[in-house]
Design a protein that fits this description.
The chain is about 35% helix and about 10% strand. It has about 110 residues and is of the alpha+beta class. It has two domains: about 15-75, 30s Ribosomal Protein S19, Chain A (2-Layer Sandwich), CATH 3.30.860; about 80-110. The protein has a three-stranded mixed β-sheet, covered by helices on one side. It is elongated. The N and C termini lie far apart (about 65 Å).
Length: about 110
């Protein structure tokens, strides 16, 4: 659900203060926990450390990100893989293929 137009976009005030302070020295990351804050045009070019619940993930703001929220660029869950017997078999085959490729490359290098 979108925010009401009469309210305007939600941009964290503390974050805007940090941007004004960083204008003088462009270096450094601005850490933030405000995942719900929208990205304003003034933020373009800055690097933000958006907290995902465990760590800060670096996000370099570009013009395409304006209007989106910080939380969209800092996922809170890490996808590992789908499990199952078929997946394990595919991984074993892939590892075997890598080993044989490495052996053939080594044999070709030794023969030269």
């Amino acid at each position: 659900m979108t925010r009401s137009l009469k309210k305007g976009p939600y941009v964290d005030e503390k974050l805007l203060k940090k941007i004004v302070q960083k204008k003088s020295d462009k270096n450094g990351i601005i850490n933030t926990w405000a995942r719900g804050s929208q990205i304003a045009p003034e933020m373009v070019g800055f690097t933000f450390g958006v907290h995902n619940g465990r760590e800060h993930i670096e996000v370099l703001v570009s013009e395409d990100m304006v209007g989106h929220r910080f939380g969209e660029f800092s996922p809170t869950k890490k996808f590992i893989r789908h499990g199952g017997k078929m997946q394990k078999e595919l991984e074993i085959k892939r590892k075997e293929a890598e080993v044989t490729a490495a052996k053939t490359a080594k044999a070709a290098a030794d023969s030269k």
